[in-house]
Write a structure and sequence with these properties.
73% of the residues lie in helices and 0% in strands. With 109 residues, it is mainly alpha-helical. The chain has one domain. Helix 2 packs parallel to helix 4 and helix 3 packs antiparallel against helix 4. The chain is elongated.
């Protein structure tokens, strides 16, 4: 194995330490990952016919509302624990709404 240049090692260590140093964390992969999974569930429900057009539009409006709220929270560069908790609560509600609509008796024909 070859030797790593000292500058490369230092850059990697600094890059690895930066997220830990940011106490408020400007980016939370958990929130974004949940939003992505919910979006995929809605898309799958539309393709499979488990969601009507009206249900999908209603669920999509909820997703847009959460994204707008998240963007507002992140606009100062920091996502506080209280803001993260609020987004998680909204995502929990959205998750329940998606599940209810996916498993109700309405089907798109």
């Amino acid at each position: 194995m070859g030797k790593w240049p000292l500058g490369t090692v230092a850059a990697v260590l600094v890059a690895a330490a930066l997220p830990a140093a940011a106490g408020g964390r400007a980016y939370d992969a958990g929130v974004s990952a949940r939003q992505q999974r919910q979006q995929e569930r809605i898309s799958h429900g539309v393709r499979s016919g488990d969601l009507t057009r009206h249900e999908a539009q209603w669920l999509e409006s909820g997703q847009r509302w959460i994204r707008r709220k998240e963007n507002l929270y992140r606009s100062d560069g920091v996502l506080t624990e209280a803001e993260r908790r609020d987004l998680r609560r909204d995502l929990d509600t959205s998750d329940r709404n998606i599940g209810i609509r996916l498993h109700d008796a309405e089907r798109r024909d």
